[in-house]
Structure formats: C-alpha cells, structure tokens
Amino acid sequence: METKMRHIFIGDVHGCIDELDLLIDKLRLRKGDLLHFVGDLVDRGPDSRAVIRRVRELLCEYPGSDAVAGNHESKVLEQHKKGIYKEPWTPDVLDDEWRFLASLPLIKQLDIGGHPVVVVHAGFFPKFFVDYAEDGLSRIRDDWHKGGGKYMSRARRFLRVRYVNPEGNMVALGQEKEGDYFWAESYDGAQGYVFYGHQPYLKPSIPRSWEHACGIDTGCCFGGRLTAAVVIDDPHHAKFVSVDALDVYAAPREDWIV
To answer: Which residues touch 16 (CB under 8 Å, ≥6 apart)?
Structure first.
C-alpha cells in the first residue's frame, strides 16, 4: 500500500536544538516527507547555530522541504549588513550560514491536494491586498531584505503583523485599540490556507486554528512546546505533534499571551 506524502509544518524553533531533535524523532520522518519551517529558527534559545545546521541538513535530506524567514532572521541580517552583532551567537556565524539565512524567502506557496497553502512567518493584513489587488503576492522578491520600494516595504510587514485595525492596516505591537483584531480572525482565505508562527500560544501551549489559518508557535523558548502540523490531503484537517520544552530560555511579553 502506497504511503501518502506528508507536509509537516514546524513552529518557531528559536534556537531550541534539543527540542527540535526530539520533535523530529517523534515525527518518525520517512522518505517523501516535506518539511516547512515557519521562521524564527534563531534567537532566545540555547543554540541558534546548531538549529541552523540541523535545518540545513533536514532540507537536504528531504528534498523539496523549505523554511521561510522570520522577524528574528530579518533582525540579525540587518545587523550583519551593518557589521553589528548584538546577539551572543552572531559573531561566530560562518559566511555560508549567513548566506543560508539570507536565502530564506518571505513566503512559500504550496498546493496540497488541490488546496492552496501559504507559509508565512506572522501573517497578512487586508489593506495590502486592497492596495495591490492586481499583484497580490506575485511581486514578492527572493531578496526581500534588500529594499524593493513601497510594495516590498509593506510586504515585509508579513514578518511582524499580529493585529490590524478596522481599515485593514497593520497595528504596531502594543498600539492596539478597541476595534482592532488579530489578523487571522477575519482572513478570508483568498491567498490560500495559512500556516504561521510569530504569535506564541501559551497557557495552554496548543496551536490555534481559524477558518483559513493555523498558528503553530506554541512558545517552546518560553517553556511551552515545539509543535508540528502534519497535513496529508487537506490543511484544514492537520494533525498536531508536539514535544515539551526542556527549559525556560526566555520570558514572553505579557501582551503576547492570548
């Protein structure tokens, strides 16, 4: 009997190498599986460079697998460009590891069983698709971190968006007002079903599913869990596999806890 291909979406690893290895063991990967990391591979946890090495190995071992960039990759790439190394692990990063981080795309578009699926680190905001109705996501550049005008400037907000206002614009973290809402609450699915990270779901550390989106950052670096969503035919029917964090490596902001 033929085994169906599995698409496995993995939440924010944030340097938690031991938990990543435990999750990979628990998933019992097999030939033909495709892994999709939702960004924020690095920072906060104990060994970001080990995570970079492990993810690169996995992407080679399971051809067709991929990872998108998160806001923490964006942050350290910007610092690297300026010759600034604020994080304790960044001074030792090798050139090929920097090139790997710079190669991560802003989004990844997939087709799973006829269902369009998008992997993005944080999410979307409706005004982008109003202002760029004819373009949608088609103009997003591979070198998204190198400028690209107003279109790319606004697309880079996909790395950080959480809340949007009634006009459909992104709201900066901490600036939310009455009437603002989490982007996935009203996302209409027009771009496809979305798997995202960025927003850590804690207390409890379980994924959050919306009609057209699923958040799989369950706060591993904050002492929560590292989660994978396993999809075979329909992204709406993902099965979740998680491992507990082995330690608390960082403290979350209180306004992150939904």
So the answer is: 45, 46, 51, 220, 221, 226, 245, 246, 249
